[in-house]
Amino acid sequence: MLPRDEQLRGALKAAASAFKEHGPRFALAGSFALWVFGAPEPVHDVDFVVCEADVEAAATTLGKAGFAIERTPEDWLFKACVDDVVVDVLHRVNGVAVGAELLERAEVRDVLAITMPVLPPTVVLTQKLRALHEHFCDFAALLPGARAVREKVDWALLRADTADNDFAVAFLVLADRLGISGAGQ
After folding, report:
1. Which residues contact 56 (CB under 8 A, 6 or more apart)?
2. Nearest 5°: phi and psi at 47?
């Protein structure tokens, strides 16, 4: 069996290649998107976003590419599995439907020798910070990625887009005090 990092990379490549060839429009998201910009490599799963209107097309594409499609009780994603690797395909993020405007913010990057759209660090960190709440508030998981991509983040925009989430605000205070955001130095 391949090492975990190779399994994840293989699933990322297979899913992205299938989306590129057969649609629908997509973008790499989550921790792997941050990895593209220099964050530590994820070890859990791969995340993509597709427009809410394209969920069935995305499931069909990945199913034909050999992924087992798993419909979850959560109504904002489906899972595409190959071996022990899970690819989460999100069509809602933090309660907001993914639309063309989010996909247009993606930057085209070479990822594992495949050119694909990747959500930029400010967008990914905004999504991750907006997901924080009293039942999930793991700053330790966020700090390495934020530190690694700190020079590629629009901190003012990140603050503005997460100002209504007290947990996000607390994380940003910590980022300031640790010198990650560049504020207060």
Report:
1. none
2. -120, 135
